[in-house]
């Protein structure tokens, strides 16, 4: 579905990703594991069209997308739920959700999608008329995920969805990710909660200093000595 082939990217003259290769197949949950500053966010932003690759190819469903603008990438079916949620705090939850449906394809089916999405997020439905900024951190994260779903993505990318949330809310975030996968959406997940993430991931990549150093099934990475020492603290 998605392939990164020798992708290099960075900011200005600084190269962050040094030729990385990643594959995500339809229906999978794939995770990228790495220390702070390894380049995980940069990888997601490069796929999303927010950072332009300086070399390599990114293909999605057979089409080269590495030169597309962010909204063109969304129109192809890839949505990024950014770190820190980035909701519009003074807009209602309902309007925040509508903002997610900005491609013509998504806008045409907005009310139907809203119903489908709210089925997954009953707590969000209860708060549709509230300002997004007045919600708790966990509720805001659910709105951010729901807004991402409003674009009717085929591939949904999450950047640190459980950051700063209490353990019980973290569990709810993981439950939602699993329910989204069951609706047929493919997931690429970056998450500091490495144990839980590898537990639900079909496959994972380890990114260190902008290079992929390992890739394997989630369960094999969970058993790997280096992963256990460096990312699980075992
Ligand atoms: P974290 O878990 O801390 O978010 P990460 O693996 O997601 O880490 P990135 O956010 O991709 O890492 O950052 C990789 C490197 O790129 C870091 O050294 C960071 O300082 C640098 N970087 C990130 N964004 C920018 C930017 N807009 N301009 C310049 N450098 C940046």
Automatic annotation (TrEMBL):
- Name a GO molecular-function annotation: ATP binding
Per the record, the coiled-coil ranges are: none
| InterPro entries cross-referenced by the UniProt entry | AAA+_ATPase, ABC_branched_ATPase_LivF/BraG, ABC_transporter-like_ATP-bd, ABC_transporter-like_CS, BCAA_Transport_ATP-bd_LivF, P-loop_NTPase
Keyword Iron-sulfur included in the entry's annotation: no
Keywords assigned by UniProt, alphabetized: Amino-acid transport, ATP-binding, Nucleotide-binding, Transport
Q: Which residues form the ABC transporter domain?
A: 2-234
Its domain of life reads Bacteria
Statement: the UniProt record of this protein carries the keyword Transmembrane: no
What's this protein's family per the entry? Belongs to the ABC transporter superfamily.
| Record's protein name | ABC transporter ATP-binding protein
């Amino acid at each position: 579905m998605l392939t990164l082939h020798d992708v290099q990217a960075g900011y200005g003259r600084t190269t962050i990703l040094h030729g990385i290769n990643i594959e995500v197949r339809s229906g999978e949950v794939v995770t990228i594991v790495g220390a702070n500053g390894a380049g995980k966010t940069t990888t997601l932003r490069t796929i999303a069209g927010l950072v332009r690759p300086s070399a390599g190819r990114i293909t999605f469903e057979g089409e080269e997308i590495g030169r597309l603008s962010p909204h063109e990438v969304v129109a192809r079916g890839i949505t990024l739920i950014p770190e820190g949620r980035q909701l519009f705090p003074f807009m209602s939850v309902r309007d925040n959700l509508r903002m997610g449906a900005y491609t013509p394809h998504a806008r045409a089916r907005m009310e139907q999608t809203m119903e489908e999405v709210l089925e997954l997020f009953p707590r969000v439905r209860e708060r549709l008329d509230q300002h997004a900024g007045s919600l708790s951190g966990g509720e805001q994260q659910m709105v951010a995920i729901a807004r991402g779903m409003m674009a009717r993505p085929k591939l949904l990318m999450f950047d640190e969805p459980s950051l700063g949330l209490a353990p019980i809310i973290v569990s709810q975030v993981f439950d939602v990710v699993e329910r989204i996968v069951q609706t047929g959406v493919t997931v690429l997940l970056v998450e500091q909660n490495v144990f839980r993430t590898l537990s639900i991931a079909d496959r994972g990549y380890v990114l260190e200093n902008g290079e992929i150093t390992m890739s394997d099934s989630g369960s094999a990475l969970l058993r790997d000595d280096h992963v256990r020492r460096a990312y699980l603290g075992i």
